[in-house]
Design a protein that fits this description.
Length: about 350
């Protein structure tokens, strides 16, 4: 029981455990290609991790904060990035343009949220609809092709490990350091735990919220730029990433109510989702059956990872007693796991 309780204090473990179980199921059914399956998952997961990290920051800001504009941003950034790279001959310029698209859409959302007091879900939805309209306009007769050099780079797998996975793992480590060691990170955790108390403590809440939504938009734009080069730009390029970006955040151990961020958990949950897609495709299940399996497994992982203590993430199954109410605001980074 003590070992189980110890696992509960590390909420990021559950996503990796679920991913491992799905991988074993794939291995048992196919009987081959275990290493290839992992390599493929590591090739696809980074795109979900990048947008998931941005969504994680937004959700950590507290109740009601969510960014539903990430999917339209990914699609629009894909077109803008590929077009810019083709026009300038520079993949770097294309990536910067894609990030700029994400920032532009995020500015609209932020102004609506902070300046007009529009609920985040409505503000980001409206901004996303504008982005979707622009995307449809660009998609009509779009002829540019992804930069071959960037596509080659995204497909590099030294020693079987995708280079992009290594780069995104480094970005994840930077996010961990950001949350644990910077004023912004500690302030974000404080705002997520208790916004009113954070305001009274002198935390610049509006600035923290604005920075968080801008970061989410930029990361979504980066995702679209890279994904369009890896696959191809399309109007529905980001469609699956809306719900998946929220799911990997919560399954990874970040509290949906805010105040606790688990960047490493986003990786485990992303691998879980990618491998789960591979499993249901392998067995040839119908879409309805696939959704049923996904829903059941997601609920199970949510129960194990999020059904417990707010501060430590210990599942309710393993808790001894309720945690007494905190007398002061936590700003030391103890609610950042991994």
């Amino acid at each position: 029981m003590n070992n189980l309780r110890a696992l509960g204090t590390r909420p990021w473990i559950w996503g990796f455990a679920a991913a491992a179980l799905v991988w074993l199921a794939i291995l048992a059914i196919s009987g081959q290609g275990g290493g290839q399956t992992v390599s493929l998952a590591l090739s696809l997961a980074p795109y979900l991790v990048i947008v998931g990290l941005g969504q994680m920051l937004v959700i950590t800001a507290g109740p009601g904060n969510i960014d539903v504009s990430v999917a339209p941003i990914i699609s629009l950034a894909g077109f803008v990035s590929v077009a810019t790279a083709a026009a300038t001959g520079s993949a770097t310029a294309g990536i910067v343009a894609g990030i700029g698209v994400g920032l532009a859409v995020a500015v609209v959302s932020t102004v609506a949220i902070l300046g007009l007091s529009v609920p985040p879900i409505i503000a980001t939805l409206a901004a996303g609809l504008v982005a979707s309209s622009v995307t449809l306009s660009l998609a009509d007769g779009f002829a540019a092709v992804p930069d071959p050099g960037l596509r080659h780079l995204l497909n590099l797998r030294p020693a079987g490990v995708p280079l992009l996975a290594v780069a995104v793992a480094a970005v994840t480590a930077l996010v961990v350091a950001l949350l644990r060691r910077t004023v912004y990170g500690r302030s974000l955790i404080a705002v997520g735990q208790n916004r009113r108390a954070a305001e009274r403590a002198g935390v610049p809440v509006a600035r923290i919220i604005a920075t968080t939504y801008l970061a989410s938009g930029a990361l979504a734009g980066l995702t679209g730029s890279l994904l369009a080069a890896y696959i191809a730009p399309s109007a529905d390029l980001g469609t699956r990433y809306l719900l998946d970006s929220v799911a990997v955040v919560v399954i990874g151990g970040t509290l949906i109510s805010g105040g606790r961020a688990v960047p490493v958990g986003v990786w485990g949950a992303a691998l879980f989702f990618i491998l789960l897609d591979g499993l249901v495709n392998l067995v040839g299940w119908s879409t309805a059956a696939q959704n049923l399996l996904k829903g059941g497994l997601v609920l199970l992982v949510l129960f194990l990872a999020g059904g417990g203590d707010r501060a430590t993430g210990t599942p309710s199954l393993f808790r001894r007693r309720p945690r007494p109410a905190a007398a002061t605001l936590t700003t030391t980074g103890e609610n950042t796991h991994g």
